[in-house]
Amino acid sequence: MNADEVELQKFAALAHRWWDPNSEFKPLHDINPLRLDWIDRQAGLAGKKVLDVGCGGGILAEAMAERGAEVMGIDLAEKALKVARLHLLESGRRVAYRLISAEALAEEMPAAFDVVTCMEMLEHVPDPASTVHACARLVKPGGAVFFSTINRNPKSYLFAIIGAEYVLGLLPRGTHDYAKFLKPSELSRFCREAGLTVMEIIGMSYNPFTRVYSLGSDTDVNYLLQARREA
């Protein structure tokens, strides 16, 4: 199974705080409108069948459902999925959650989704190329796949680990492992090898003074990638 037990336990311990916008998951709440709007602009979520890989507690999955998508969220963190299901009772939205890996679902439901998202997950799995290949198999020909992850360079180490985890306290210490960060060129290669064509790479930046996230050309730290499966 393409999963790191230490990573799963790390997020399991925090699962009950997933929907607290002032908790360790505050950055996810803060960036969700940005990534949601970007995905919706590129793919048009309304009426689409969407899969959210590594959905965690369901922040993005629920938001895409609110935009009119038919959403399935998958994860290997059982406690996070329990929180996601419980939150549906409060929100009233409809999302189908499953405890299954992307690779296993790709065997079961190949080419079943119009859109596949895999956000803030690739830097937490042992074999990110395997996840990319699974996402490519899950999307329909001509469909869109969206990834977000962290670049690997001295600046990303300074900002994403030293800054975010130790100085600003945006994330718990130990959230990220620098060795697992992916350069855009590496993620693009995984996409090409999986039969995906890279359509756009865009950066996501955080201003510590205004405490605002924004999308732009700076991909040195956080970045998002859109790809399309060839017909």
TrEMBL record:
Task performed by this protein: O-methyltransferase that catalyzes the 2 O-methylation steps in the ubiquinone biosynthetic pathway.
Family stated for the protein in its record: Belongs to the methyltransferase superfamily. UbiG/COQ3 family.
GO molecular function, one term: 3-demethylubiquinol 3-O-methyltransferase activity
Pathway the protein takes part in: Cofactor biosynthesis; ubiquinone biosynthesis
Keywords: Methyltransferase, S-adenosyl-L-methionine, Transferase, Ubiquinone biosynthesis
Gene3D superfamilies per record: Vaccinia Virus protein VP39
Pfam families cross-referenced by the UniProt entry: Methyltransf_23 (PF13489)
Species of provenance: Thiobacter aerophilum
Record-given protein name: Ubiquinone biosynthesis O-methyltransferase
A GO biological-process term: methylation
Assigned EC number: 2.1.1.222, 2.1.1.64
Binding site for S-adenosyl-L-methionine: 35, 54, 75, 119
Catalytic activity, reaction form: a 3-demethylubiquinol + S-adenosyl-L-methionine = a ubiquinol + S-adenosyl-L-homocysteine + H(+); a 3-(all-trans-polyprenyl)benzene-1,2-diol + S-adenosyl-L-methionine = a 2-methoxy-6-(all-trans-polyprenyl)phenol + S-adenosyl-L-homocysteine + H(+)
